[in-house]
Design a protein that fits this description.
heterodimer, A: 217 residues, mainly alpha, MetI-like fold, 8 helices, 83% helix, flat, B: 257 residues, alpha/beta, 6-stranded mixed sheet, 4-stranded antiparallel sheet, 9 helices, 26% strand
Chain lengths: 217, 257
């Protein structure tokens, strides 16, 4: 047990780092989701120009590693004169990055509904907006829920990259402690356990949603 | 009541409808029969513009549906989505695969469109929905979700849902084709009731004996055109064309027990 003394001494510091990780993930997931829905709608129902723009955006984002995008923005922002605190800078990058992937999840959810549902809604005289609102979205969101949760898990883990641009969170906190204690294995084991707890809980929730999708009501 | 004039439709190079014209009077029940791929279902879907078509016009009570002719140039223009949605209110359709909304209860399925599209007060829409459910014999199922119902029950809910918009005309697209034989009767009974109440109906079906019972007129389609039409007795027993005679012979050979 003695080997784990460094971890026992610093677990509180790690948990505070975890708090920051969670905060960042939660704050980023909200705009990412909204952006995802917007991009999905534009791609499905937008004018040709809007569809092409969205497609280009997804193409670019998919081809860039998040780490590169974070670092790039970190150096770019001061040059543009935009004075954004690092936390918000990172949140914006995460939102734009994950928004792209979320849009694919929502688009797939909407497209996987049978065409017959659209026919039924249209035949009852519903406007497109109304059918989306009361017929398509409620079903599509249910279908999209499991892959959506999957992306959220991904996002939580991706926050560990932001320590590279100097933002303090769980991974950064771990590195600080390691520098003081010289006990990398114990500390990172602790950090990994915390990440695992967060992600596993989310994944369980995703599994639960998946069962609900399969079994209906 | 319903006037279909010179409607043509193609899927790529395949001509599905070739200048089909058909008029249906108020309270009339017209049954469309014919082999698969003859264009029956497409014709129904063109009536309320679930399919676009290249030529021709459809009017209900004199009101054009989907396309209007420009009074000056005589050119055919597609109406705006809003106008098309508004005209669909008057045309009820029931599909082969029921197409109920699975995330809504039976009652919600029926009242959604009247309340959200027509602005009928909730209480009034619900009272009407319960009347309609009683008519199709499903009073006790208002709170159920579609997955808990049999195919025949779902199809009767679909009929009630379409009727809740108080349509001027009802279209039925092979509504019993997906049902177990034992459940067909209950759906046909609901349709018979509706015909007796004077609803104008266009019915696409493969149920020949039902067609004979319910129809004022039978229309036989093949290859995207109306080959022959007439009174049920005349068309079934003294068809004028060889094509209809052949179709009925094949049908009889297959279904004789």
């Amino acid at each position: 047990m003695k080997e784990f003394a460094p971890l026992l001494h610093s677990y509180w510091y790690l948990l505070r780092g975890a708090e920051m990780t969670l905060l960042m993930a939660v704050v980023a997931v909200v705009p990412a989701t909204l952006l995802g829905i917007l991009l999905a709608l534009l791609q499905l129902f937008g004018k040709r120009f809007a569809r092409a723009a969205v497609l280009g955006y997804l193409f670019v984002i998919r081809g860039i590693p998040l780490l590169v995008l974070l670092t790039f923005t970190y150096y770019l922002l001061p040059l543009t004169g935009i004075d954004l605190p690092p936390f918000w800078g990172v949140v914006v990058v995460l939102a734009f990055y994950y928004g792209a992937f979320m849009s694919e999840v929502f688009r797939a959810g909407i497209l996987s509904l049978p065409r017959a549902q659209w026919d039924a809604a249209r035949s009852l005289g519903m406007s497109r907006r109304l059918m989306l609102q009361i017929v398509i979205f409620p079903q599509a969101l249910r279908l999209a829920a499991p892959p959506f949760v999957n992306l959220c898990v991904n996002l939580v883990k991706a926050t560990s990259l932001v320590s590279i641009v100097g933002l303090w969170e769980l991974t950064m906190a771990s590195r600080e402690i390691v520098e003081r204690t010289l006990a990398p294995f114990q500390i990172f084991l602790g950090a990994a356990a915390i990440y695992f707890c967060i992600c596993y809980t989310l994944a369980l929730y995703g599994k639960y949603l998946e069962r609900r999708v399969v079994h209906g009501h | 009541m319903l006037e279909i004039a010179g409607v043509s439709k193609r899927f790529g190079t395949l001509e599905v409808l070739r200048e089909v014209s058909l008029s249906v009077g108020a309270g009339e029940v017209v049954v469309v029969i014919g082999p698969s791929g003859s264009g029956k279902t497409t014709l129904l879907r063109c009536i309320n513009l679930l399919e676009d078509y290249e030529q021709g016009t459809v009017t209900v009570d004199g009101e054009p549906i989907g396309y209007r002719l420009d009074p000056r140039t005589g050119k055919r223009q597609r109406m705006s989505e809003r106008e098309i949605a508004a005209s669909r209110e008057h045309i009820g359709i029931v599909f082969q695969s029921y197409n109920l909304f699975p995330h809504m209860s039976v009652l919600q399925n029926i009242i959604a469109a009247p309340v959200r599209v027509k602005g009928v007060p909730h209480a009034k829409a619900e009272a009407r929905a319960r009347d309609l459910l009683a008519m199709v014999g499903l009073s006790d199922k208002a709170a159920e979700y579609p997955v808990r119902l049999s195919g025949g029950q779902q199809q009767r809910v679909a009929i009630a849902r379409a009727l809740a918009m108080d349509p001027k005309i009802m279209l039925f697209d092979e509504v019993t084709s997906a049902l177990d034989p034992e459940l067909v009767g209950e759906v046909l009974a609901a349709m018979q009731q509706l015909a007796r109440d004077g609803m104008t109906m266009v019915v696409v079906t493969h149920e020949m004996s039902f067609a004979r019972d319910i129809a004022n007129r039978i229309v036989f389609m093949d290859g995207g055109v109306i080959v022959e039409q007439g009174q049920p007795e005349q068309l079934f027993f003294h068809p004028n064309t060889e094509r209809v005679r052949l179709f009925l012979k094949r049908y009889n050979d297959r279904y004789r027990i």
